Amino acid sequence: MGADIIDGKAFAAKLRGRIAEAVADLKRGKGLVPGLAVVLVGEDPASQVYVRNKGRQTLEAGMASEEHRLPATTGQAELLALIARLNADPAVHGILVQLPLPAQIDTAAVIGAVSPEKDVDGFHVINVGRLATGQKALVPCTPLGCLMLLRDRLGDLSGANALVLGRSNIVGKPMAQLLLGESCTVTIAHSRTRDLAATCARADILVAAVGRPEMVKGDWIRPGATVIDVGINRVEGPDGKARLVGDVDFASAAEVAGAITPVPGGVGPMTIACLLANTLTAACRANGLEAPAGLAV
Ligand code: GUN
């Protein structure tokens, strides 16, 4: 194996430590405690695990955490009323509505109801537009985490050929905008792209976020490239047990890449750390302060 392994778990732990220090400074200096409200509708088991982890890590960083658990039968009006209360609450700086929402609820309307200044998911069209026009924005957590890992590994990204594989609103599109903001030459590829292997071969930076287990093969990758694997796919291993794999075939890619994130332990731990970073950013900006350097765009 030739590639360096990018240790996202260690990087996320360091980032949480930096955030906790900044939170302690805010408390001491300004009497300000950043607060995150997480809303969970229904009982989706994976969502329950995420919400529990978010709450725990928020408290560990010294922030205030509140959870609002609503039954799966909750109507749209009731959810919008809760969001309106959280928008108006000065102790709440960040609001996250866990997705997916039950079918009776219009997800776009819910995302649009969260105040853009408290939209720590970065999903509101105002934040999407701010990011796309190079203004200060709250940015979706997973691509923000990928950018931090890339900056840490490569320093200046300007002029690099960056390929984003995947065009979702949550990862692919904001990732492309962030890389463009770093002056990369950005290509977005997806399921209809012709000759994906040749497209990958030009990339100095490859971010894979397609949700297809081990789709990107080592012989597609440019030698020495930096590979960020956002995929988290549960597959059955040769022993019949479930295991997690990324969108990149790790074994063959690690022979060719210069550096690569593993799954698990790569991008995954960065997502919640960046949610904390966004909550800190939102709390600072709500009080006329700059967000700490490197945590926000
Ligand atoms: N469900 C899965 N990922 C996410 C995310 O990043 N934000 C929210 N709100 N829900 C999710």
Task: Please tell me about this protein's structure.
By secondary structure, this protein is an alpha/beta fold. It folds into two domains: 30-124, Leucine Dehydrogenase, chain A, domain 1 (Rossmann fold, 3-Layer(aba) Sandwich), CATH 3.40.50; 141-269, NAD(P)-binding Rossmann-like Domain (Rossmann fold), CATH 3.40.50. Helix content is 40%, strand content 16%. The protein is built from ten helices and eleven strands. The protein has helices at residues 8-30, 45-60, 76-88, 107-113, 125-132, 141-154, 172-181, 196-200, 250-253, 268-286, and strands at residues 4-5, 35-41, 64-70, 94-97, 161-165, 185-189, 205-208, 226-229, 233-236, 242-245, 259-260. Helix 1 packs parallel to helix 10 (268-286) and helix 6 (141-154) runs parallel beside helix 7 (172-181). Residues 96-99, 121, 141, 170 line the site of guanine.
